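Deliverable D4.2, example record:
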Amino acid sequence: MAAALAPLAVLSSRQSAQVAWIGPPGAGALLGYVVPALAGLLCAALLPAAARLLRSLALALLILPGGLLLLSSAIMPLYVSRYVLYEEAGLALLLGAALDHLWRRRCHRRLLAALAAAGVLVALVPVGLHLRGPESRQDDLAAIARAVQAQGRPGDGLLFMPGRRRGWQAAAPAAYAGLVDLAVREDPRASGTLYGVELPPAAVRARILTAERIVALRAPAGEPADAAPVEEVKRAVLRAHFRLCGTTEVHGARVTVYARPGRCDPA
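Output generated by the structure prediction step:
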């Protein structure tokens, strides 16, 4: 299997910039991994010896994928919970097997199994509600579009920082219609790409300097800055020639208005 996947590993390593946005795992990510792992270990301890095959398979599925990504994050941050969402199948197997084992025992243990099952279902209700709400996404595209509409004026420059954030406008293109994308050479539709193709750094610098007012769509605070040359140029020109007028923070993004000195008048 390793030999068969080697070509894919080599090819995908050329696209490592796609995951450059991932930061080190925080306390929430660690807690989201440790709690299901401990629950799975507890369920595994309740199973009889005859269930060793299921126990081994389910524990490996539950613990190894996320554990390996967390360990690798010491070298290069790669852990995102949705990347290993499939490992929850291991927890489901262990929970089901443990409840089935308790149910098959004496009558008082049937009551215990029923209470445990009810407890699991109740505990999953807030998780299910969260997963179906906008906060479960990494970013709220509708909120970003509303912030752009509120802050931008027709003719303002538009910068996506980094350029891969250009995908945000696909959710509500009308919100961006009056703005001028200062860094794009070919938009996603024309280039047949997800984020479009940007101009070289020197051309981006020249176009930014033609603007009087710019709406910049940035990553949320705390996310590592993209080290690509064109992104460094965007940041440097804004620092040197523009004044920060204000920032609207929404889930997963910051919408910041920059203007020439003395031009930060209200919209």
